[in-house]
Write a sequence for this structure.
């Protein structure tokens, strides 16, 4: 039987800890908290829960007491995690690391979860916790936290739609996530992040002439201006009289999209071979629509490339295959300038902005997806992407 005296004493000690600073100084509060922790170690769960409930209304809980109760079983800890408004990041981090999933879920639901606490919660990779965190409008994500979340979406698509609504998500993140997103998420990415570069083109309008006078010798400015400029097709290809036109290369590719054909189309489109390989081995096909729209190619070019990849054009009942129809809709939906933004982000960010977590996600995904591609598609990916990530 629980001692009546012990119950009253625990309540009195909790009352002392809760006294305002005008009644008790910091040392007296700390001494009382230490005594209370020592008693609670041997107390019943119901008694610990009562103390936690009492302390949850305090503006500040002494650190030793907060950590002890936050490490307790969930029925006790939730009294603080739900009700205590001013738990420190240090206390929450200790709780996240030393307890279990349900504790972390309640931390993720708290108002104003800081960047550092979000980062630690993300490290555990628990979908239930991550969903709560993403839906928490008061949670703050660091850049590293967002990148880690993007990488985690590769393993669980349930996180994707919620992550796409976060204000911290940037184009570089979204365009990397695009490669393993489903059709609906891809549509959302293209609608939200396919922005115009008009303001950049106005800002840099006079610099193109300067760079041309210098023969484009500065690699840093050349790379940035290639992202900004209106021209999508390769400048070098236009000056090379022996090169095919992009239209001719696409027409020829309908008879078989070989690695050499992909490399030529990539060159003519102003893309790195690695980017072209990823576009043409993508199972969904939406990147082909983006490529064609950005380079001024009509819908017939999509059909030619589709045929070259040996993908079905018909649904077997006289209509267009659902996948091809979806790609055609993307071509209609996206404007030329915005398609160029997407294409250049892919071409630029594939090597410029990959973090270790995102690079790992891409590599692991390519290994896992090897069975999803036909032999010609996979041969193209292996041939043209062998230097990926170096």
């Amino acid at each position: 039987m629980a001692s009546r005296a012990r119950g009253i004493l625990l309540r009195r000690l909790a009352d002392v800890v809760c006294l305002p600073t005008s009644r008790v100084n910091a040392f007296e509060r700390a001494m009382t908290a230490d005594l209370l922790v020592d008693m609670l170690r041997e107390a019943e769960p119901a008694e610990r829960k009562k103390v936690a409930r009492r302390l949850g209304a305090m503006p500040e809980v002494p650190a030793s007491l907060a950590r002890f109760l936050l490490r307790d079983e969930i029925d006790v800890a939730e009294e603080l995690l739900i009700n205590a408004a001013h738990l420190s990041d240090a206390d929450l981090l200790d709780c996240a690391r030393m307890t279990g999933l349900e504790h972390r879920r309640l931390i993720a639901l708290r108002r104003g979860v800081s960047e550092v606490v979000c980062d630690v919660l993300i490290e555990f990779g628990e979908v239930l916790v991550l969903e709560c965190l993403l839906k928490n409008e008061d949670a703050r994500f660091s850049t590293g936290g967002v990148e880690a979340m993007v990488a985690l979406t590769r393993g669980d698509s349930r996180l994707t739609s919620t992550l796409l609504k976060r204000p911290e998500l940037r184009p570089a993140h979204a365009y990397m996530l695009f490669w393993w997103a489903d059709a609906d998420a891809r549509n959302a990415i293209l609608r939200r992040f396919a922005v115009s570069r008009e303001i950049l083109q106005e800002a840099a309008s006079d610099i193109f002439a300067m760079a041309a006078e210098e023969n484009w010798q500065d690699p840093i400015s050349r790379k940035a201006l290639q992202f900004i400029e209106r021209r999508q097709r390769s400048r070098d290809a236009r000056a090379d009289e022996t090169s095919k036109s992009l239209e001719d290369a696409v027409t020829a590719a309908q008879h078989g999209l070989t690695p050499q054909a992909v490399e030529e189309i990539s060159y003519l489109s102003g893309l790195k071979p690695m980017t072209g390989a990823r576009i043409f081995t993508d199972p969904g096909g939406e990147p082909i629509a983006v490529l064609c729209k950005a380079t001024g190619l009509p819908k017939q070019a999509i059909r030619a490339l589709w045929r070259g990849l040996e993908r079905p054009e018909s649904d077997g009942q006289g209509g267009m295959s659902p996948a091809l129809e979806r790609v055609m809709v993307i071509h209609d939906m996206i404007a030329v300038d915005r398609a160029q933004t997407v294409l250049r982000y892919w071409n630029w960010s594939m090597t410029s902005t990959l973090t270790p977590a995102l690079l790992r996600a891409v590599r692991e995904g390519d290994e896992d997806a090897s069975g999803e591609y036909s032999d010609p598609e996979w041969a193209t990916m292996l041939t043209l992407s062998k230097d990926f990530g170096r």
User: Anything to note?
Assistant: The chain has a mean pLDDT of 84. The CA atoms of residues 312 and 384 lie 24 Å apart.
